[in-house]
Specification:
By secondary structure, chain A is α/β, with parallel strands linked by helices.
Chain lengths: 503, 503
């Protein structure tokens, strides 16, 4: 057995076993245990085979089933030992009772790690379930690493590894890693990442976490060069001391965003039935998380939005912001929200204000900051001048541009043309990209939509297109101003702390 | 001058002048001052004429312009006094300098009230602007009421009165009134109301509020039989004592939801340039609002979502809720969010749990509450049984059903059919409607969407259709569980207080 795969079994010293994560996340070959010869089977094994092929996984795939046969053009091997090469990674999708033997077979064949998609273990709360999970744990101690059981597995776009249900996930690799016990949460985040402009380095849904789980995966991701931001949803942790030590170490290297579920009494009860972990008290968690330097968030949207901000913005804090567009009430709200989040929307320097006021339509506009452009139809070329000028105020760290595209609707109706034809969203995105390049200061876009009914799907569609243009340039987009400011505030909390420590 | 239109001018006693609001909100005839004979004019007067016709306003419309002529099949009157009947309501859209004379003309012709759409008054911060606004105020003291200036006007679906930009607003009347200085906010809310299931009794955007504004309109709406919920966005108030007295009186009769903008220093500065009002300190506002019994919210989404909950739910509090569907992590989050908002998701009675567990697919399901249905594809007929059973637990006040329709997408792709064809959303909505009728306990729907990119517009479209089905039955729908729970919590705060007072 090569040196790098050996387990040192030194958990007592809070060290993790040596593990060849490279073979797990970027396997050259995969065995799938529990594939049916019926290619339309809805079993997890056949499903995983299908989606690995759809993802274009470039390595070798070996379906395994005692019954043999073939599926989707691949030979089904009756036994692991019949596979003609040493396999790096295994997907185990056999019924719970058969999992320990399948895992033994993988261990004996020199597999580095396996994801166990099957459920029917500790999460059932039955003695049989717990015993099966103990057996898994015992086997891993002898030299194979396990993700799961009761999980959706690993998604790694660079290698083409995908999790359940899995098809249709992006193959673009990015800088965000995501960890979750919950497979549903992982899958939803993988999909939301697509339109939010978040690309992932690695995503691990570890379910019951019989072996690999939060602390050790954090330790790995903190050292992983592909990962610049670590985002996680956890319901319960196994070993508090080790977890907080790893969390602190990881947060010292890169931002860690954490959404802790199960903080309430009922939530903890619900956690027990979901992934067989323990919850915990909200106050204790908040205070401990603060000490680690990790960023705590309180719902899925906040988690994803913070991840987008950390992933796409420069690695620094942004205390003073300019807000352009959106109209009076949105500007007023911007100031209130910014103050609530420890940020400022300072009045622009008077010479800059004068230059901006000379460009904007009168009356109704204001260049004070927020800059009220008075009219939702102001041309991108004018908005560019406003953004270029506002960025010249040296206090301004970041700009937010709010576009109410749905206000073009009356004109689309009046002239009888599709709204996407009259909204210059491509030019606007180009202009914003230009401004970022020329000024070196980030711009964040906000695209609210007050018109989301079935008869206004053209507006919803237009906004989705504009968002796509923005995120393809790495410009973060939010639905609402308060979401944008809250996400930026998380970035400020994390980098502000580091900037203070440096002083 | 008929008795009901006389002004008593007793503001000194904190009483409001007698006003015939019926003639203002349900006018039999409208004069529009400042209509161009060019029907494609982008002026506010011509715009308002167009949208009043599109809304199907059933009364008489009299365009007015010294140049005479005709537009859109209507004669343009040169002077107010030429109009052959007493006009109830006037729209004034002439240039600021000409507004006082136009208003004088309306007063002399016996008009009950006018909305002044023109800007160029106090909001400019110039002496000329302030003087023009003082002139308006002086004229109103002699017997005509004014909404504005610098506003989008009045929307009243029952009478067909609409505000700017105005076309395409619902003609269905409902139980929510909305007040705002900001026209943009009013217009956005009017449109969002359509897909959120909120129908309006009256909406008033009063801009600078030279005459009619927050306190007096509250006083009117508190007594208005069409209005059951009052929702408002205000940036500044004119007379704190009077406002808080009216707010308290209104909140004693019906829920008043208030979003106060301009609480921060920068926000107050921004308010000054937006609608010429004064802001105020956040802490003082929160404590004073609490005393009045009004419900304070902190952003537009929260305002609209709370309005939907108050409008569509029974008039009581809902402390104990059941959450059905959505999967493990969502259930865990539900408990945490509920606790944060003073609500409970109690375990269901054991006999009810057993009945539910007998129906649900195994393994992976849990009937503890939240009820994890284990599979996003569970049929409406099964969900109906779950909902019917859970409602039998006498502690349960309200149920939330979470549907992750986007999880059908892999199956739509696999079978090559549009997602709307395989998601049984109509049956589901019918089933939920049935459950509400049979159990007498409300159900709230949550329809998250993790897949909002341009290539998944079919999913976004499906969810919009499902939302429409729900709201057409008066069932509130939210994008996210935390939004649903926060909105219900506002209902609890309001009715819980009243229920406690009764004890």
């Amino acid at each position: 057995m090569p040196e790098e795969r050996k387990h040192r079994g030194n958990r007592g010293n809070n060290r993790f076993p040596d593990t060849d994560f490279e073979r797990i996340f970027h396997p050259a070959s995969i065995a799938i245990l529990g594939v049916s010869s019926d290619e339309n089977s809805v079993g997890f094994g056949t499903g995983m085979l299908r989606v690995l092929k759809e993802m274009g996984f470039a390595g070798r795939i070996y379906p395994v089933n005692p019954s043999g046969g073939s599926v989707l053009g691949l030979k089904i091997y009756s036994r692991m030992e019949d596979i003609p090469e040493r396999v790096d990674f295994a997907v185990i999708a056999v019924t719970a009772k058969l999992v320990p033997q399948a895992l033994e077979d993988c261990l004996r064949s020199g597999v580095a790690g396996a994801e166990i998609l099957s459920s029917g273990f500790g999460e059932l709360g039955t003695q049989e379930g717990r015993q099966l999970e103990d057996q898994i744990r015992e086997i891993t101690a002898r030299g194979i690493r396990v993700v799961g059981p009761n999980c959706f597995g690993i998604y790694c776009p660079r290698s083409g590894l995908t999790m359940l249900p899995g098809q249709d996930l992006s193959r673009e690799s990015g800088n965000v890693a995501f960890l979750a016990q919950s497979g549903g949460m992982a899958s939803d985040f993988a999909h939301a990442g697509e339109w939010m402009g978040i690309r992932f380095s690695k995503m691990v849904s570890f379910g019951n976490g019989a072996d690999l789980r939060e602390a050790e995966l954090l330790n790995y991701l903190a050292r992983d060069h592909e990962t610049e931001v670590i985002s996680m949803y956890i319901e319960g942790i196994k070993d508090g001391d080790v977890f907080f030590r790893e969390l602190k170490a990881a947060a010292a290297r890169k931002p860690v965003i954490i959404f802790k579920g199960g903080l309430s009494a009922a939530g903890a009860r619900s956690v027990a039935s979901h992934t067989a972990s323990m919850g915990g008290s909200g106050l204790i968690w908040s205070s401990v998380l603060k000490q680690t330097g990790a960023v705590q968030v309180f719902d899925t949207q906040e988690l994803m939005q913070a991840s987008a901000a950390f992933s796409l913005l420069p690695k620094k804090s942004f205390r003073n912001i300019a807000v352009i567009g959106g109209g009076g009430a949105i500007g007023v709200a911007a100031c209130d929200i910014a103050e609530r989040h420890g940020m400022e929307i300072p009045p622009l320097a008077s010479d800059i204000r004068e230059r901006i006021e000379a460009i904007l339509p009168r009356p109704g506009s204001s260049a004070l900051n927020p800059v009220d452009v008075a009219n939702p139809l102001v041309a991108p070329s004018i908005l560019k001048e406003v953004l270029m000028n506002a960025a010249q105020d040296e206090r301004i760290d970041l700009q937010i541009i709010v576009s109410l595209f749905f206000h073009y609707n009356p004109y689309a109706l009046m002239f009888g043309v599709p709204i996407a034809e009259i909204v210059p969203y491509k030019e606007l995105v180009e202009v914003v990209g230009d401004v970022i390049n020329k000024t070196g200061k980030p711009v964040v876009a906000v695209l609210p939509n007050a018109r989301r009914g079935p008869r206004n799907m053209d507006i919803t569609g237009l906004i989705a297109l504009a968002r796509q243009e923005y995120v393809q340039r790495g410009i973060p987009v939010f639905d609402e101003l308060h979401e944008a400011i809250r996400a930026i505030a998380h970035v400020n909390t994390y980098y502000g702390r580091r900037e203070n420590e440096k002083r």
